[in-house]
Amino acid sequence: MSELPSIIGTPREWAKDLTTATAIGVFLGVIGPFGSFNGGPVELRIFFWVVNFWVGFIIIATAVRLAIRAAIRLDVPVWFAISVGVAIGAFPLGLIVSLFSAHFWPGNHGHMSRFYEWYGQTLAISEPCSWAFYLFRSRLERQAAELAGPAPAAVAPTPPAAPPAPSPTADFLDRLPPRLGRELLCLQMEDHYVRAHTARGSDLILIPLKQAAAELGAIEGMQVHRSWWVARAAVRAAVTNGRNTALELTNGVVVPVSRASVAPLKAAGWLT
Questions:
Q1: With CB atoms 3.0 to 4.6 Å apart as the test, which of 28, 49, 120, 197 could cross-link to 202 if both were Cys?
Q2: How far apart are CA 248 and CA 225, in angstroms?
Q3: Phi, psi of 113 (to 5 degrees)
Q4: DSSP state, residue 170
Q5: CB proximity list for 148: less than 8 A, separation 6 or greater
Q6: Taking the C-alpha atoms of 207, 213, 214 and 220 in order, what is their torsion angle to the nearest 10 degrees?
Q7: Which region among 70-84, 179-193, 223-237 has the lowest average model confidence (pLDDT)?
Q8: What was the pLDDT predicted at 75?
Q9: 60 and 17 in contact (C-beta within 8 Å)?
Q10: Selected residue with higher pLDDT from 87 and 15
Q11: Rounded (5°) CA angle 161-163-164
Q12: How far apart are the C-alpha atoms of 22 and 263, rounded to whole Å?
């Protein structure tokens, strides 16, 4: 169940998505693109476009989230995942828009009776809107991360005569919610977040994976994949399937190992 929020998104994310969908729907309702300008009063057009964009955001956002998760696991670019996710989500959305239009404007529906025409127009709107929204929100998240900065370091007490042993903790652990404890097992990149897995569960932290790994300091671990960092103590076993290698962790998570990481892991004694 800990993976579910990363698929469906948080209520706050959906509130932002649907607010954006409403604003775009109102704008398109006013200008009336694709022949909808002659489809009735402006109130009806706005209602038509807002409802379509609400349905569209629910379908497209879910498809894109699933595509991004698949891209992270397969180590393919996120931009490719977004394009594919929108193209897949446009299929059911095009059908819904077609039926919705037939209900509102049955007299104007016949000029686009073929599904590929509805799919093409749906894709023509969904792709640029999805990309513009993704790039805009990514920029805001990066700015928020820059403003937040690293977790504040604790003020060091006056050192005693005999210096204490170095602490095994690191700054990143201060970012974890208290309910997760501090036994970090691995980090999983999810877009501009990392999902921190501990012995008690997981949660999303707004920070790039590279920065998070740099903050782990004395914790022994390694980035074994473009999207994964793993603590050495969390590895239960190595799993090999043909040319593919993965690490099974103590919490049951199976982490893929990139081919470029196999040799360093063998040199470090993680793999035999």
A1: 197
A2: 14
A3: -85, -20
A4: -
A5: 206
A6: 150
A7: 70-84
A8: 65
A9: no
A10: 87
A11: 130
A12: 51
